[in-house]
Design a protein that fits this description.
4 domains; alpha+beta; elongated; binds zinc ion; Rubrerythrin, domain 2
């Protein structure tokens, strides 16, 4: 290996490091120099002129530094494509904090870290606020209630989020994460360069530098890169005035929001669900076509206490017939059930035909024949 080759290798590594970490090339060169025990790059460069060369071990250290940021930073791996092809239930990392097992998942750039009865959600954008969710049955006993545990868990989530950001930045064009001297940045998904951008979501005006720093998420509302445009064309005919959005004053990840959630399957017994179950039971009780029509047209009321009242049509539901299933379902649900009968308008002529058979097919045949002989049949839209 010639001198030039070894120094070129270091410069190439610095370039990948700069891209993954969204920093300037000179900052990356300094980071390489520090990894090789120099105070900064200028010092290293001066030593090179005096004949200094990195050892194989030092080069390996520099390479490890870049890989630590983003394993695919050498350009052989596409982070975003890898993310898409990974099965959703494949963790990117798993382990234990004390006795508590955890798994970390990545989906569309967002991080989800979870253990028994808790999860931490962390967005792709820089400085996004972590959301800590605790399942209700674990509300008081969850380990994330303990500051030490939460701190360790967040450190792991932050580490994985940093790798995700490095992966995305490595995939995107360099100009998307590093403004030029005029502050111009390139949209990572749609292309197009500008120093000023607009958020479709909150109508905010954003500088290229703000977007580059925030991985193209709106610093104001958190909208994703697909909502960021160089022209606010949607505001052309409106009197909305766009306001520049403010970046966070404190440049660090905010404290997490902790929430108790209940994602267990929940059976809500309200008017809608109770009456649906009662009607289903009524249909089970119905034997003849008339009774089945009666079950569908029955008026079912459920009051605030959950007690129910079913009003049946005397022509469709025989007075003597006890709706056993409906009564049993009401009992299971703890509803007091009141059944009454009223006179409604029978939907078809010859009400008795509806009780003459248990077969709907037979009933419809009889209805058609009776009307063909002694009445008239209107087909849909015939009169229109
Ligand atoms: Zn916005």
């Amino acid at each position: 290996m010639t001198t030039k080759n070894e120094i070129d290798t270091l410069k190439k590594l610095a370039k990948r490091y700069a891209r993954a970490n969204r920093i300037a090339q000179h900052e990356a060169l300094n980071a390489m120099a520090v990894a090789l025990d120099f105070p900064h790059w200028a010092h290293l460069a001066a030593k090179v002129k005096q004949g200094w060369l990195p050892t194989a071990e030092q080069l390996a250290n520099a390479e490890a530094l870049v890989h630590q940021t983003h394993p695919g930073a050498d350009g052989t791996e596409n982070f975003i494509d890898n993310g898409f092809s990974r099965p959703v239930d494949d963790p990117i990392r798993q382990g234990k904090i004390g006795d508590h097992a955890y798994r970390v998942f990545e989906a569309f750039g967002d991080i989800r870290m979870e253990g028994e009865g808790w999860r931490i959600l962390l967005g792709e954008a820089q400085f996004s606020q972590p959301l800590v969710e605790i399942e209700k049955p674990h509300a008081d006993s969850s380990p994330v209630r303990k500051q030490d545990f939460l701190k360790s868990a967040l450190a792991i989530a932050d580490e994985e989020a940093a790798k995700v950001r490095a992966g995305i930045a490595s995939d995107w064009p360099r100009r998307s994460t590093k403004p030029d001297a005029e502050g111009l940045v390139l949209h990572p998904l749609f292309g197009g360069k500008s120093a000023e951008w607009y958020c479709l979501h909150c109508d905010g005006k954003i500088t290229g530098a703000q977007l580059a720093e925030n991985l193209w998420h709106c610093p104001s509302c958190g909208a994703s890169p697909v909502d960021i445009f160089s022209k606010a064309a949607w505001l052309d005919d409106s009197d909305v005035t766009v306001k520049p959005v403010q970046s966070r004053v404190v440049r660090q990840r905010p404290q997490p929001e902790v929430k108790v959630v209940d994602s267990r399957p929940t059976l809500t017994l309200n008017e809608k669900s109770v009456s649906l179950l009662l009607r289903t039971a009524l249909l089970e009780d119905a034997t003849t076509p008339a009774e089945r029509i009666g079950a569908q047209l029955a008026e079912i009321y459920v009051d605030d206490e959950g007690d129910a009242c079913i009003v049946l049509d005397e022509d469709l539901w025989p007075d003597s017939k006890e709706p056993e299933a409906a009564i049993a379902v009401a009992e299971l649900l703890g509803s007091e059930l009141d059944i009454s009968v009223t006179c409604m308008t029978f939907p078809f002529a010859w009400p008795d035909l509806g009780h003459a058979t248990t077969s709907t097919r037979e009933y419809v045949r009889m209805l058609l024949e009776a009307h063909e002989e002694q009445g008239v049949i209107h087909r849909k839209n015939e009169d229109d």
